Structures are given as C-alpha cells and as structure tokens.
Amino acid sequence: AVEGRESLQKLYHLLEAKGFQTRMEGVALLQDLCKTNPQLICTNIVQIFDYFVLRISDSHKKVKQKALDVLAEIIGLLEDALNPVMIRLVEGITKNLNSKDPRVHAT
C-alpha cells in the first residue's frame, strides 16, 4: 500500500511538472504502471486521469503526442476500468482533432 501511494505521488508530481521532459517522464511512468500494476491504476483511475487528461491537450506537442500514443496502448490494458473517465478522455481527444500538427491529428 505504501509503495502504491509513493508511485501515485511520483506520477502526479511528474504529470504536473513545469518542464515538458518531466511531464513526458510522467506519461511514460503511467504507461509502465498500467503494465506492471494495473490494479493500482484501476483503483485510482479518476484521480490519475485528472492529471493525465491535461497531458492529452498539453501545450508542448511532444508531450501531447506521447500522451496520445500511450493512451492508445493503455485503452487495451485498462478496458472497462476507463468507464468513469471516458467523457473526460473523449473531450481531451476531441480538442486534438483540430490540431495543425499532422502527427497529433492523425493519432
């Protein structure tokens, strides 16, 4: 339980960091936690996605691209656990449909 709390605190800290590289580390950590500890993610899905959804529409296109790529992967890993955050995810994704960056738009 302590290890899970520490992992979540680290994740939140990275996802809300000022530096784009640190935010990218947070996205990568979420991806890793979804693979190695999906129960932790599923149990805390709403709180985690309060932070993660912001990265889907990040002002830095590299962070945004990474977040969208990771989202595509973790949808398959988390499946039904995403139900409580689905509306927020769709809203975040929809904002990218008008992106001028072809890679972001395509993702």
TrEMBL record:
InterPro entries registered for this protein in UniProt: ARM-like (IPR011989), ARM-type_fold (IPR016024)
Name of this protein: TGRM2 protein
Record organism: Loxia curvirostra (Red crossbill)
Lineage of producing organism: Eukaryota, Metazoa, Chordata, Craniata, Vertebrata
